[in-house]
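Data availability excerpt. The first of two example chains:
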Amino acid sequence: MGFAVRADQNKGDSVSSSRKQNLVLLRSANKLNSSTEKPFAASLQPVPSRARIPRAVPAEVKQLPKAPRLPLGLKLLVGVQQGSTVLTGGLVATALIIYSWTVYLDKAVARSFNRLDTLKAAIQQVTTANATLKHSMAEQAESPTAGFKPFEPKRAIFLSPAPARPSVEPDLETDVQAPMPPHPLGY
């Protein structure tokens, strides 16, 4: 027993449109030579030109059964599940954002404290250098080789105050503003 299969390239639906040289007869291998070939292998042989191919009879089309309607309670549970999935995803995303924000803030605060410590150390160094300079300048001023003379009250210079100037009162009439133009000047 064998089957004829169409092997043409024009993909027409009718058997009569197939050329006879494109028809192949499939036979089981155990009838031909079961000792040399594997069982269940098929061999291809051309169909004789007299072979007649029966037309296919269309099968009855059956409509698939419709899915039964879910009860209201089950629909409600499915809706709750979907809502809780969305809510859980939102909460996870929010938690990740808050976590990354706190890590960023911790690193920023640590950098700020390090900078503050560096600035405090720099302030101490500047204060120490300033005090050292003041002390060395005072020692140089007290030395007799500097040429400074001690303060004597009789050599003090007193300046007389400058004469008082008359106060100027602002003119209120000069502050009148010019009228605004009817259209805007620009933006």
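And the second chain:
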Amino acid sequence: MDKKAQGIIDFVVLLLIVIAALLIMGYYVRNTISGKLREGGDTIGQGEVYRPWVTSEDSNIITNQ
């Protein structure tokens, strides 16, 4: 009976470690994917940031100064 309880405790601890590792890895994977999407958007947009309050005429004035 004592060995069975020890086996269950070992299994639960191992399961908690695996779950914690997956959660931490998920955080890093999500940040990596977000960074790659931002990098792709910057490449397509040639490094410009979308500013909805600035019209195309305003941006020409800003860049020509």
